[in-house]
Write a structure and sequence with these properties.
Blueprint (H helix, E strand, L loop, with lengths): L15 E3 L1 H6 L4 E6 L10 H15 L4 E7 L3 H13 L2 E7 L8 H8 L3 E4 L5 H14 L4 E3 L7 H21 L5 E6 L3 H13 L4 E6 L4 H18 L12 E3 L12 H14 L8 H13 L8 E6 L3 H4 L3 H4 L1
Parallel strand pairs: 2-10, 3-4, 3-6, 4-5, 7-8, 7-10, 8-9
Antiparallel strand pairs: 1-2
Helix pairs in contact: 2-3, 2-6, 3-4, 6-7, 6-8, 7-8, 9-10
The protein binds pyridoxal-5'-phosphate (PLP).
């Protein structure tokens, strides 16, 4: 297995604990949570793990500036801005579509971390990033582009290691988990987890809740990326298509459109457990998990893990939709 370059940005392992009141409220299964929202960079989240590898790659290529893209409230963009600050690199964010009246939530944090923002309007963000690269080069700087969501094999490798971290924690708890449930969008998180589970021959499914794309589109991306991640790590294992599990029943009115399912999930976790999920990713993923619990997808005696991937910063830009 290749030993990949990594910078330290987070605190590992993130905790795993039981959501006992939530489990009881639904009459089982036992639901546990893995707290990647406590990763330790900015307000936390899955991108901290990916950025440990992506920033190391940028530094190894002598980059002076990292450039990435996302929506206004992108957690990935915000975590990239924080990681760049920590590593002493410049950061430019190509955000879509345009400047809102007030910089709230993650956009406020992007500015706090000193990121420069270029609004994409209705242009292709990839083209905007190319232009930003050209501008940086002509100013004598070295740009490094981090793809949307940090979801290439470099970033996804982080979740290969995260699955190993969780497998150790499951052993310590003396539990075999039926499923790990996780929000899945650009795919790097779930693809890395699937690659990790495949290499360890775990009996645990990695169940993605689709956040933005229909299942066939997301599943194909996940399958390709999981296998690319194994190749990047130089591991001789293969992820078969049937190891890619995606539930797209919770897409609602579309990406970042908050509906009653997300509202209910956010309130349920807040009121039963005193914990916070965000309206775009983890709220939707938790709505998926709760929906599957209600459909009796699991036996009451099963153990299921909700992998909290962060997003807390975005919550504060959605207070009107939530209250
Ligand atoms: C909070 C949060 N959870 C989950 C995801 C989904 O992760 P991925 O893009 O790796 O599928 C994202 C992606 O931006 C996110 O911000």
């Amino acid at each position: 297995m290749n030993d990949l370059p990594r910078v330290s940005l987070g605190h590992w392992p993130t905790p795993v604990h039981e959501l006992a009141r939530l489990s009881r409220a639904f009459g089982g299964p036992r639901v546990f949570i893995k707290r990647d929202d406590l990763s330790g960079l900015a307000l936390g989240g899955n991108k901290t793990r990916k950025l440990e590898f992506l920033m190391a790659d940028a530094i190894s290529r002598n980059a002076t500036t990292v450039i990435t893209t996302g929506a206004i409230q992108s957690n990935h963009a915000c975590q990239t801005a924080a990681a760049a600050a920590r590593c002493g690199l410049r950061c430019i964010l190509a955000l879509a579509p345009g400047a809102p009246e007030r910089a709230q939530g993650n956009l406020f944090l992007d500015r706090l971390f000193g990121a420069q923002i270029r609004w994409t309007g209705d242009r292709d963000p990839a083209q905007v990033m190319e232009e930003l690269c050209a501008e940086e080069r002509s100013a004598g700087r070295v740009p490094y582009v981090i793809p949307y969501g940090g979801s290439n094999a470099v970033g996804a490798a982080a979740y290969f290691y995260a699955m190993r971290e969780f497998a150790r924690q499951a052993r310590e708890l003396d539990l075999e988990f039926a499923d790990v449930v996780v929000a899945s969008s650009s795919g790097g998180t779930q693809a890395g987890l699937i690659a990790g589970a495949a290499s360890l021959h775990l009996n645990t499914n990695v169940q993605g809740i689709a956040i933005s794309d229909p299942a066939p589109v997301l599943a194909e991306r996940l399958h390709t990326l999981a296998n690319l991640t194994l190749q990047h790590l130089n591991i001789r294992a293969e992820v078969p298509p049937d190891a890619v599990l995606v539930n797209d029943a919770y897409l609602g009115a579309g990406y970042a459109r908050v509906g009653s399912a997300e509202r209910e999930a956010i309130e349920t976790l807040a009121r039963l457990e005193g914990l916070v999920v965000d309206p775009v990713y983890t709220g939707r993923a938790l709505a998926g998990l709760i929906g599957m619990v209600k459909e009796r997808h699991w036996k009451a005696s099963d153990s299921v893990l909700f992998w909290h991937t962060g997003g807390t910063g975005a919550l504060f830009a959605y207070t009107e939709e939530l209250l």
